[in-house]
Amino acid sequence: MQYFIKNMVCNRCIMVVQQLFEELGHPPVRISLGEVETVNPIFPDELGQLRKRLVGYGFELIDDNKSQLIEKIKNTIIQLVHHSNDDSKVNHSSYIESHLNRDYAYLSALFSEVEGTTIEKYIIHQKIERVKELLVYDELTLSEIADKMGYSNVAYLSSQFKKITGLTPSHFKQVKENKRKPLDQV
Fold first, then answer.
1. 150-156: long-range contacts at Cβ-Cβ below 8 A with a sequence spacing of 24 or more?
2. pLDDT for the residue numbered 80
3. What is the pLDDT of residue 95?
4. pLDDT at position 181, please?
5. Is the dihedral of CA 152, 156, 160, 161 positive or negative?
6. pLDDT in tens, 110-135
7. Which are the contacts of 90, defined by CB distance < 8 A and separation ≥ 6?
8. Are the folds of 2-62 and 74-186 the same?
9. Which residues of the chain have pLDDT under 50?
10. Domain coordinates of the chain in residue numbers?
11. Interatomic CA distance for residues 140 and 101, integer angstroms
12. Is domain 74-186 given the CATH code 1.10.10.60 in the classification?
């Protein structure tokens, strides 16, 4: 049986959700960002308990197909931007289309309809969150970050960063309380 979980954005999320399923007696046979597969279905009384426990950790069980597809799009983008070593200059529409085996025009229209923003803007926001993370680590130069994140140059990265955050990357680094958002709130 396959279950879709909203707000799974990192490996710790996977560990927490896995533990919840195991405690219910349904250990996952496969688990990834936003998806859990079990051998046997979870009965309605257990499902209510699972829903309640998931909400306690900031997750949500997704039932309808549109929401499941939106969550798959988000998780594909998060995987690419935050957890992948793929070429940062990858064509995002082709990447999403190939990972979800759906026409990009359909995915884009659905995403915009449901989320009220475009996939492209969502990708930009995710990239800026990743840039913030890399700035906080202070291990790479701004030029290296721009290259790693697929920006053509530092000026373009800085311009986009300021447009989203209101700060230049160098000013962001100087601010003591770096204002990063949790990925499920981007």
1. 150/88, 150/89, 150/90
2. 92
3. 94
4. 63
5. positive
6. 999 999 999 999 999 999 999 999 99
7. 80, 150
8. no
9. none
10. 2-62, 74-186
11. 35
12. yes
- Residue 135 is predicted with a pLDDT of 92
Fill in the amino acid letter for 82. Answer: H
- Tokens standing for 21? 């399923």
Would you say the C-alpha torsion 151, 155, 156, 157 has a positive or negative sign? positive
Tell me yes or no: is domain 2-62 CATH 1.20.1540. no
Q: Which residue has the tokens 């884009």?
A: 108
Pair of tokens at residue 173: 């680094």
Contact 38, 3 (CB under 8 A): yes
DSSP states along 4-44? EEET--SHHHHHHHHHHHHHTT---SEEETTEEE-SSPPPH
pTM: 0.80
